[in-house]
Design a protein that fits this description.
The radius of gyration is 17 Å and the shape is globular. The chain has 173 residues and is an alpha+beta fold. The chain contains 3 helices and 9 strands. The chain has one domain: START domain (Alpha-D-Glucose-1,6-Bisphosphate, Chain A, domain 4), CATH 3.30.530. The protein is 20% helix and 40% strand.
């Protein structure tokens, strides 16, 4: 196919990089954070809407809709609201829960019309580490490297907010 006739897929109303040939590792996100807190406390922050609304989403985002059925096979649906008022919806299903060390869930990002533009799996692993907790987040496999990079930006800020929450509280209320 010549460059003149190549078309990039449209995702969420915009052209996306067409890079299905990119290696899986380039389209897999892996982030880590350390916490000066026990695994049980860090795990608990993922399990209840009353905790999620305090840290979920990038910096200055809110979580005005937080529906969660935290059990194996349970569903969740969140709306992250950006400072500009735009809504970013995500939903999925909890496919593996092993407190306090592991959590796996599907991740389906919706556009304004409710169409899925991102379909991945998120794994959270919590390990005891130097008297605290090492969190590893792995999200795979993104359709494009650009989507992976966009999520890295958001997840980094989200995890920073989680670290701040845990630092402020030795126990979650």
């Amino acid at each position: 196919m010549t460059k003149a006739t190549e078309k990039k897929p449209v995702i969420a109303g915009r052209a996306a990089e067409a890079d299905p040939r990119a290696a899986v590792d380039e389209r897999t996100l892996v982030l880590t954070r350390t916490f000066k807190a026990p695994r049980e406390l860090v795990f608990e922050a993922w399990t209840h809407p009353k905790h999620l609304v305090k840290w979920w989403g990038p910096t200055d985002f809110t979580l005005p809709h937080c529906e969660q059925d935290f059990r194996l096979g349970g569903q969740y649906r969140f709306c992250m609201r950006a400072p500009d008022g735009s809504d970013h919806w995500v939903r999925g299903e909890y496919t593996y829960i092993y407190p306090p060390s592991r959590l796996v869930f599907t991740w389906l990002r919706e556009d304004a019309e409710g169409d899925i533009w991102c379909d991945t799996v998120v794994s959270i692993t919590l390990e005891e580490f130097k008297g605290g907790t090492l969190l590893t987040l792995e999200q795979t496999t993104f359709a494009t490297v650009a989507h992976c990079e966009e999520h890295a930006f958001g997840w980094n800020q989200c995890l920073d907010r989680l670290v701040d929450l845990v630092v402020l509280h030795t126990q979650l209320p």
